[in-house]
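[recover] target loaded
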C-alpha cells in the first residue's frame, strides 16, 4: 500500500521541521487513539447530538491535519459543518466516508512505522 495516495509523508515531516522522532511519536499516538476518536464521533452521531458531532469532528480534524491526509481531512471538515448545521441525516454518509479514510490513514501510518520513514 502506498501512503502517498493517503497522506503526504513529505508534507507531514515538513510540519515538524523534518524531525523524524517527533513524526514517529505523533504517528504512534494517532495509531493508538485514532479509532477511539472515531468512535466518539460515531457515538455523537448515534446519539443524534449535532453539537457533540461538530466538536468531535473538529478534534479529529486537528489530529489528522498533522498527517496531510486530504480525503480524511475533507471528511472531517464536512462532518464538522454538518454537525454545526444540525444536518444529521447527511452526516451519516460522511461519517461512513470518514471511517473508510481514517482506516486507510491508520493502515498507511502503521506501514510507515513498521517499515521506517523511507517506506
Amino acid at each position: 500500500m502506498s501512503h502517498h495516495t493517503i497522506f503526504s509523508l513529505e508534507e507531514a515531516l515538513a510540519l515538524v521541521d523534518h524531525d523524524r522522532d517527533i513524526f514517529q511519536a505523533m504517528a504512534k499516538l494517532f495509531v493508538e487513539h485514532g479509532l477511539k476518536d472515531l468512535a466518539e464521533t460515531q457515538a455523537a452521531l448515534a446519539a443524534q447530538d449535532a453539537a457533540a458531532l461538530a466538536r468531535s469532528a473538529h478534534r479529529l480534524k486537528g489530529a489528522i491535519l498533522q498527517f496531510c491526509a486530504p480525503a480524511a481531512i475533507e471528511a472531517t471538515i464536512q462532518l464538522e459543518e454538518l454537525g454545526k448545521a444540525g444536518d444529521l441525516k447527511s452526516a451519516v454518509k460522511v461519517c461512513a466516508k470518514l471511517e473508510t479514510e481514517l482506516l486507510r490513514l491508520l493502515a498507511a501510518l502503521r506501514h510507515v512505522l513498521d517499515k521506517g520513514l523511507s517506506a
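[recover] notes: The chain has one domain: 3-115.
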